[in-house]
Design brief:
- The protein is mainly β and about 130 residues long.
- It has one helix spanning about 100-115; strands at about 15, 20-25, 30-35, 40-45, 55-60, 70-85, 85-95.
- The chain has one domain (about 15-115): predicted glycosyltransferase like domains (Thrombin, subunit H), CATH 2.40.10.220.
- The longest helix is centred in the C-terminal third of the chain and has 15 residues, at about 100-115.
- The termini are far apart.
């Protein structure tokens, strides 16, 4: 008999290593790197422990040799935090009530880029103005 595991997640995750910042309600800003992201949440690695149920904004910025994006700000709530060799791995779910239409649209574009549905033009084709 063959059994298959059922994916618990409602949305597929995409592995990615993107510059991020975890902005906490108390004003602290923790530098981070993404591990993965989906329409429902995110996993980042940061230097400090972030307790469960902490409300935070996850600001992502794509940095390339020739350009960088404005931060994509995604509000969420920390679901878990695990100590790692290099810091803490933090998992959060996005807060649908706190996400505006702009954030949802930008997240959609970001995920489509990760899926390969969108691509960036070569650097020499981008008009700097």
């Amino acid at each position: 008999m063959v059994t298959t595991s059922v994916e618990r997640r409602e949305n597929p995750r995409f592995s990615c290593d993107v510059e991020a910042e975890v902005r906490l309600e108390d004003g602290r800003r923790l530098p981070a790197r993404t591990q993965d992201i989906s329409f429902s949440g995110i996993c980042v690695v940061t230097g400090e422990k972030v307790p469960q149920k902490t409300r935070a904004t996850f600001a992502l910025r794509l940095v390339m040799d020739w350009a960088e994006t404005e931060p994509l700000e995604l509000p969420g709530v920390v679901v878990w935090c695990t100590r790692t060799r290099d810091g803490h791995q933090v998992g959060a779910r996005f807060d649908p009530q706190a996400m505006g239409d702009d954030a949802w649209q930008r997240l959609d574009v970001f995920l489509r880029f990760l899926m390969g549905d969108l691509s960036m033009p070569p650097a020499d084709e981008i008009d700097p103005d």
